[in-house]
Amino acid sequence: MKTILFADDNRNIREYCRAALEDEGYRVVLARDGMDAVRTFRKETPDLAILDICMPGVNGLEAMERIKAIEPKVPVILFTAYDDDCVRDQRGSLAMGCVEKSEDLTELKRLVAAAFRPPVSESGTPSLRLGLPPASCKAESA
Predict the structure, then answer these.
(1) DSSP bridge pairs for 29
(2) What pairs with residue 80 in β-bridges?
(3) How many domains does the chain have?
(4) Domain region containing 59
């Protein structure tokens, strides 16, 4: 069974998404902020991380950097109400996708499923980048 780390500072969102992802057959571990996400990642070594961007203390982008330093190949999905932050911040290029928060979790579920069977480029990075520009665009603009 694949394990997903889901981090969001809103308890209702965490529980709603946990239930939906568990219904899809995944094991879900929760974190309430970015620092908790990094600690939980070290402890649980999940197969995928889903992170809200705007969390108190360590935000989702910083948590993603720390998680990628631990395990560079783990797929990360940014799940946020502020989806343009995924594109504006250069760190967003580390994520395999960015999904806008919604009660309809169809896109999130689709991206999660794709993370476990991605076509992989030569660099080892999943080529699917929902909600994000191609990685090459980020490199050129940096």
Answers:
(1) 5
(2) 100
(3) 1
(4) 3-141
DSSP string, 51-119: E-S--SSS-HHHHHHHHHHH-TTS-EEEEES-THHHHHSGGGGGSSEEEE--S--HHHHHHHHHHTS--
Q: Which two tokens stand for residue 36?
A: 């908790």
Q: Residue 79: which CATH number?
A: 3.40.50.2300
CA 108 to chain centre: 10
The pTM for the full model equals 0.80
- Strands 48-51 vs 3-7: parallel, antiparallel or unpaired: parallel
Q: Which two tokens stand for residue 43?
A: 């402890």
pLDDT 10s digits, 90-120: 666 678 888 888 899 999 999 999 888 755 5
Name the burial class of residue 88, with classes exposed (0-12), middle (13-18) and buried (19+) by CB atoms within 10 angstroms of its CB: exposed
